[in-house]
Amino acid sequence: MNKIAKSLLSITAAMALTVGATAAQAEFPEKPVNVIVPWGAGGDSDLTTRLWADAMEGALGAPVVVINKAGGGGVIGTTFVASSKADGYTLVNAGLSNVLVTPNFSKTPYDFSSFEPVVKLSSVPLGILVPADSPYKTFDDFIAAAKAGRLTQGSWGAASSGTVLASIIADQAGYEVKYVHGNTTAESMVALIGGHIDSAVSFPPAFAPHVKSGRARLLVLNQKMAEYPNVPTFADYGIKGSFEGWSGVFAPKGTPPEAIQKLVAASTKVMGDPKVRKAFENMGANVDFRHGDSWTQDMLLNYDIMKNAAAKMKQ
Questions:
Q1: Are residues 105 and 249 in the same domain?
Q2: End residue of a domain, out of 219, 237, 255
Q3: 154 near 200, Cβ under 8 Å?
Q4: CA 116/CA 99 separation, integer angstroms
Q5: Are the C-beta atoms of residues 125 and 203 closer than 8 Å to each other?
Q6: Which strands sit side by side in the sheet containing 177-181, from one edge to the other?
Q7: Which residues 6+ apart lie within 8 Å of 110 measured at CB?
Q8: Contact 116, 90 (CB under 8 A)
Q9: CA-to-CA distance for 5 and 11, rounded, in angstroms?
């Protein structure tokens, strides 16, 4: 075989490999995509993730299965995904708590660099609630009582976003509480309406049904909401900062860009659907769809803020 023939054969073989590789990439997803929610069922993160996953099946062309893997304040499920095969088929529900707060306030087998951010879905304002029959009618009443004698407050883990944000609020307002930790915001709300704790920090997807039914009273929120026009904000009390949670999806570090791109494209279609957006709003979550470098840079900035806050608390 002459040199020209050999060269043509080599080129043909290389082209075949390239075409084959492209075809293989285009096949994602070939099987169901699993999304690990590192919290128990019924919490705000679980609810928003399930809403997104249900809508994603048609847009992505494959089942998107939500699996709860709770424990360790979100660490067990998040660690599971961080150490999973980076092929796009195992994702994690990501949020302020498990990817920005916990790695800075406790020792975890992962940090922010262990993941590839995929999409942010929604944000939710933090609120402080008391049972409907509580003697504390306003946040002023609650602050006075907390200053007079320590009250209990439900959250979802010692290093969770709820506890960290609640601690910042309490510090600025000049009171202390004793935290009682459940696995989810939903568990805290059950403890609250059951009369087992004096108050709870929570987000709308978990507290809205209890407020609407008259079983819980919302004292204060991170921001004004149309559903609760008479509820004041933390800023009204001179408390500075933004106190909100968010829900999104991350993949293990090293996940192929092609898989990330397909997940983003399908999510863009889903989150642009008026029916899906309305479903999020009905749940009490603000649609806050983001992806790409600007979102990642914002998270890195917040990650450093949390790192500095953790360092100050350890001094």
A1: yes
A2: 237
A3: yes
A4: 11
A5: yes
A6: 177-181, 151-155, 199-202, 127-131, 216-221
A7: 78, 79, 82, 83, 103
A8: no
A9: 10
**Structure tokens, 270:** 């889903």
Query: DSSP readout, 92-122?
Result: EEEEIIIIIIHHHHS--S--GGGEEEEEEEE
Taking CA atoms, 65 is separated from 53, 90, 214, in Å, by 7, 10, 34
Q: Cα 263 vs. chain centroid, distance in angstroms?
A: 17
In contact, 121 and 247? CB cutoff 8 Å: yes
C-alpha torsion angle, residues 63, 64, 67, 68 (rounded to 10): -150
Cβ pair 161, 101 in contact under 8 A = yes
Q: Please, what is the end-to-end C-alpha distance for the chain in angstroms?
A: 75
Cis-peptide, bond into residue 38, ω within 30° of zero: no
pLDDT tens by residue, the chain, 315 residues: 555 444 444 544 444 444 444 444 458 999 999 999 999 888 888 999 999 999 999 999 999 999 999 988 899 999 999 999 999 999 999 998 899 999 998 899 999 999 999 999 998 899 999 999 999 999 999 999 999 998 999 998 777 888 889 988 999 999 999 999 988 888 999 999 999 999 999 999 899 999 999 999 999 999 999 899 999 999 999 998 878 889 999 999 999 999 999 999 999 999 999 999 999 988 888 899 999 999 999 999 888 878 887 887 666
**Whole-number Å distance between alpha carbons of 108 and 79:** 8
Domain CATH number, residue 302? 3.40.190.150
How long is the chain? 315
Q: Are residues 224 and 272 in the same domain?
A: no
Containing structural domain, residue 224: 127-237
Here the tokens at position 54 are 């249900």
